[in-house]
Design brief:
The structure holds two protein chains of two kinds. By secondary structure, chain A is mainly alpha-helical. The N terminus of chain A is likely disordered. Chain A is built from 13 helices and five strands. Chain A has one domain. The longest helix of chain A has 34 residues. The N and C termini of chain A lie close together (12 Å). Chain B is α+β, with helices and mostly antiparallel strands. Chain B folds into two domains: 165 residues, Penicillin-binding protein 2a (Domain 2) (Alpha-Beta Complex), CATH 3.90.1310.10; 282 residues, Beta-lactamase, CATH 3.40.710. Chain B is elongated, with a radius of gyration of 35 Å. The model of chain B has no long low-confidence stretch (mean pLDDT 88). The chains are: A mainly alpha, B alpha+beta. Chains A and B meet through α7, α10, α11 and α12 of A and α1 and α2 of B. Chain A: One of its GO terms (molecular function) is peptidoglycan glycosyltransferase activity. Chain A: Belongs to the SEDS family. FtsW subfamily. Chain A: It is found in: Membrane.
């Protein structure tokens, strides 16, 4: 795309663009997610709360809030975030610190802040904040990104939030770090240093696992889930996946969700999708996520400026990492770690913030200047 | 504003391609899990979800020779409550309290207990179960089950036996033929959630139960009834400890009746049939129950006394050491080595031939005959007649013969053995051995089991029992029958005489150990018709009060039974015999 000097001509030939494909995919994913969530959670909800729609109602409410957020953010010029990014980062850091001391405990880790009747997971906000914060910083110093020093400096800037989040929620910390690395990778003209960095991470990770017996145990559970009590969830997930077969048992027909697979509506929801919809349904879901990521690619590569592009790259990295890690965990391809499947797993904060994030991507898409050819 | 450069796009593309590659890998992983491992994981998951529920098979009936059902099944219900499904707890508590007749406190405890399923009462009869079902309460389960039921309750209780909670035989024929009667329980496979609650409408696969087969026995309800009534009357009149009666077909060993009064209640076998002090411990009570369940005809041994003279006679005739016309002299006692053994008639029978010796049941005559046979040979006859082995009757717990070892039989032992003392056998053993001697010399196996049939009458199996031929010659058999006829017609057994029927028999009176207790067992063994014995009866009265002579108290009982069953069995009335008797 070449820049046209005459403003008048440009205005004339410009077409208002909005990525309806992305919007459609998002709406479809959320809709599909709610159906699967209801199917998966109704039994647990009935048993625990005596109301089969308990989880569905909460998720639906969060989705509506999320769609509201998406609508607003999509209609606001995304450049406003350059000014808010520092604030957002500090706020997220503060909230994540707060949660360590004042968090509500659930399933052994305190990840929630409870204000009034609403509970809220700050680590989800942290991802969002890191995306806009890093996009802002990098887009301000694009020339220096090439130097390794700058890369480390920027990583050092996000390090506090990574550490704070990691206290309660290692998985999310890994995602944040992943997003940061992706942003740097895209912004930097170099490849070599990232390859080296990748190698270093793998090496350090290996040493880390060797040293900490807790990690090593996880590794053994991963290899032989049937031999360990802690491998129960993984194993039950595999039972669900395996019993799905090619076309699944049919929507609502999962057996594993009936208390065998604990908290099936959270991290393990993909295994219930496999059980009910089969290999066919599971691959459709993966393809849907690929379609979503492809839309981010298109928007990023056509974004009017570096900041917009980086925001979308950040979102893309966020979604891609989470989907990949979740499916890899569910299929026991990697050791178990708690990562939700975007839009589908139960989690109000997650779905609300994800939708707002989508609004950001849509907002960037609205600035794409198509020209009449 | 800074532009997004080409290298940025390339790198974004790189990320996208990397994502695609990883996703393809994950899809491959899914294909592996869901296609190639599908069967393995699917099976494991199914094992986890399936619960097996058994459907009880109906136990086979026990049917007598007339086709009367002696042991059947009754449908009973188990009432349970499922806490999570109960909508109207108060109404449920009220209804269950009313219908089940148990305390409201207990019902309330069960209904309000937070558990997946709680049994309120089992063994509830079907009508009550149906009434409870009719209320239509949600969360109240009425499960039907079978319970063993004995229509005649006490009839042949120690023969039939009873079953335990798991449909397993505990004593009697119920144990012996358990494998035929039991059947195979069916299975219902249902899907349940992780808490074990069945999922409604989930496709259930079931294996239907195979009902047990019916056992047809030779016992005859009518004969058993006659015998039991006669025995009960005697028990009461003589205030005896117990009265046992065996009615058997001597030619094939089919037992037509086996009575041991007092019988117990088969439908409540764990309740003693008499009062016990309240402070009886459980262990004592169990011992008393075991005693109550004993089948004296089979589980207990006794000294057969004079009835054994039949066997001594057979042995002597076989050995050829005596003929019916041999002359003996009874001074009232006989001296063997240094012992003086008395005849029951202290004044002595004087001069008599062998026929009168047996008619009088004269001990010195039989001691003499026994000594003529000699210890070695006598022992051999014991063995040849089958007295040393169990009879093989198809009831559990048959007692073995208590006998001297061969080398310990001195003259005194030989002398006492020859009139039925100093060793012990079971009543069934006596009946079997005598049958074998009078039926022409074929050692038969006493039994109840005739055949196994399905409920629709299809024959599954007919039982056959071992028979040893020629334990005595037919001549000996003839002679013994003739001698025993004399005993009834003119001798000690004349109280069993019935005009118009030829009856053979022998009385016995034995003193139980220790002799000082002055406790007696009176018995009479009789059979008819003499020429071709079709029925043999043994009456054993254990510890009667007052007169204890077998000829006086046991023979009339046998007579009473004979009178009842001869017409029933179609044993021909013999005009000539009746006339002879009249003369």
């Amino acid at each position: 795309m070449s820049r046209r000097p005459e403003k008048r001509e440009k205005e004339k030939k410009q077409i208002k663009y909005f990525d309806y494909t992305l919007l459609f995919i998002i709406i479809f994913l959320v809709g599909f997610g709610l159906v699967m969530l209801y199917s998966t959670s109704s039994y647990n909800a009935q048993v625990k709360f005596g109301n089969s729609a308990f989880y569905l109602r909460k998720q639906l409410l969060a989705s509506l809030i999320g769609f509201g957020g998406m609508f607003i953010v999509a209609h606001v010029d995304y450049h406003i975030w350059t000014r808010l990014s520092g604030l957002a980062y500090i706020a997220a850091l503060g909230l994540c610190t707060l949660v360590i001391f004042a968090g509500a405990e659930y399933n052994g880790s305190s990840r929630w802040l409870r204000v009034g009747g609403i509970s809220f997971q700050p680590s989800e906000l942290a991802k969002f904040a890191v995306i806009i914060f890093l996009a802002t910083i990098i887009s301000k110093i694009p020339k220096q990104i090439g130097s390794l020093m700058t890369v480390f400096k920027i990583l050092a800037i996000v390090l506090p939030i990574v550490v704070v989040v990691a206290v309660n929620n290692l998985s999310t910390a890994i995602i944040i770090l992943g997003i940061a690395v992706c942003l740097l990778f895209v912004a930097s003209p170099k490849y070599g240093q990232f390859l080296a960095m990748g190698g270093l991470v793998i090496g350090v990770g290996a040493v880390f696992i060797m040293v900490e017996s807790y990690r090593a145990e996880r590794l053994r559970i991963w290899l032989h889930p049937e031999d360990y009590e802690k491998g129960y969830q993984t194993l039950q997930g595999l039972y669900a996946i395996g019993s799905g077969g090619l076309f699944g048992k049919g929507l609502g027909e999962s057996m594993q969700k009936l208390g065998f697979l604990p908290e099936a509506q959270n991290d393990m929801i993909f295994s219930i999708i496999c059980e009910e919809l089969g290999l066919f349904g599971a691959i459709c879901v993966i393809l849907l996520f690929l379609l979503l990521i492809w839309r981010f690619l298109v928007i990023a590569n056509n974004a009017p400026d570096l900041f917009g592009a980086l925001i979308v790259v950040g979102i893309m990295a966020h979604i891609a990492i989470q989907v990949i890690l979740n499916i890899a965990v569910v299929t026991n391809t990697i050791p178990n770690t708690g990562i939700t499947l975007p839009f589908i797993s139960y989690g109000g904060t997650s779905v609300a913030i994800l939708l707002t994030e989508m609004g950001l991507a849509l907002s960037v898409s609205r600035r794409i200047k198509l020209e009449m050819v | 504003m800074l532009r997004y450069k080409t290298f940025n796009r390339k790198k974004t593309m790189t990320i996208f391609v990397a994502v695609i590659l990883v996703m393809i890998f994950l899809m491959g992983r899914l294909v592996y899990l869901m296609v190639f491992c599908s069967e393995y994981y699917g099976k494991k998951a199914e094992d986890l979800h399936e619960r097996e529920r058994t459907v009880k098979a109906a136990r086979g009936k026990i049917i007598d020779a007339t086709g009367t059902v002696l042991a059947a099944n009754k449908t009973v219900c188990t009432i349970s409550v499922i806490h999570s499904q109960i909508r109207e707890p108060e109404a449920v508590i009220a209804a269950l309290t009313k219908e089940l007749g148990i305390g409201e406190e207990l019902v309330r405890k069960r209904v309000e207990k937070v558990s997946s399923i709680e049994r309120v009462k089992s063994n509830v009869d079907k009508e009550t179960g149906d009434r409870i079902r009719a209320y239509g309460f949600s969360g109240v389960k009425v499960d039907e089950d079978y319970k063993r039921y004995y229509p005649y309750d006490t009839l042949a209780s120690k023969v039939l036996g009873f079953t335990g909670g798991d449909n397993q035989g505990i004593i009697g024929l119920e144990v012996k033929y358990d494998a035929y009667l039991q059947g195979t329980n069916g299975k219902i496979l249902t899907l349940t959630d992780a808490r074990g609650i069945e999922i409604e409408n989930a496709g259930e696969s079931r294996a239907d139960p195979v009902d047990g087969n019916n056992l047809h026995i030779s016992l005859d309800y009518n004969i058993q009834m006659y015998a039991q009534q006669a025995a009960e009357k005697t028990l009461e009149q003589k205030q005896a400890d117990s009265v046992s009666v065996i009615v058997m077909n001597p030619s094939n060993g089919e037992i037509m009746a086996m009575v041991n009064v007092p019988e117990f209640h088969l439908n409540t076998p764990f309740e003693l049939n008499y009062e016990v002090p309240e402070n009886t411990t459980e262990e004592e009570k169990q011992n008393l129950l075991n005693g109550m369940w004993r089948n004296q005809c089979i589980n207990d041994t006794y000294e057969p006394g004079s009835a054994f003279k039949i066997i001594t006679t057979a042995a002597a005739l076989e050995e050829g050491v005596v003929s019916v016309n041999d002359q003996f002299y009874c001074p009232g006692y006989i001296v063997v080595e240094d012992r003086r053994i008395h005849c029951h008639k202290r004044t002595g029978h004087g001069a008599e031939d062998f026929v009168h010796g047996i008619m009088n049941s004269c001990n010195p005559v039989f001691i003499d005959v026994g000594l003529r046979i000699g210890a070695d040979h006598f022992y051999d006859y014991f063995s040849r007649f089958g007295l040393l082995k169990k009879t093989g009757v198809d009831l559990p717990g048959e007692a073995a013969t208590i006998m001297h070892s061969k080398e310990n039989i001195g003259l005194v032992e030989l002398a006492t053995m020859s009139f039925g003392q100093s060793f012990q056998i079971t009543p069934i053993q006596l009946v079997t051995t005598v049958s074998s001697i009078i039926n022409g010399g074929n050692r038969i196996t006493p039994h109840f089991g005739v055949s196994i049939k399905k409920d629709d009458g299809t024959l599954v199996q007919t039982f056959s029992y071992p028979k040893t031929e020629g334990i005595v010659s037919s001549e000996t058999s003839d002679t013994v029958r003739g001698l025993l006829e004399k005993v009834v017609s003119e001798g000690g057994g004349k109280n069993a005489k019935i005009a118009g029927y030829s009856i053979g028999g022998k009385t016995a009176t034995s003193q139980t150990l220790p002799r000082s207790a002055n406790r007696y067992i009176s018995s009479f063994l009789g059979f008819a018709p003499v020429e071709n014995p079709q029925v043999l009866v043994l009456v054993v009265i254990n510890d009667p009060q007052g007169v204890y002579y077998g000829g006086t108290i046991a023979a009339p009982v046998a007579k009473e039974i004979f009178e009842d069953i001869f017409p029933y069995l179609g044993i021909p009335y013999d005009e000539k015999a009746a006339e002879e008797l009249a003369e």
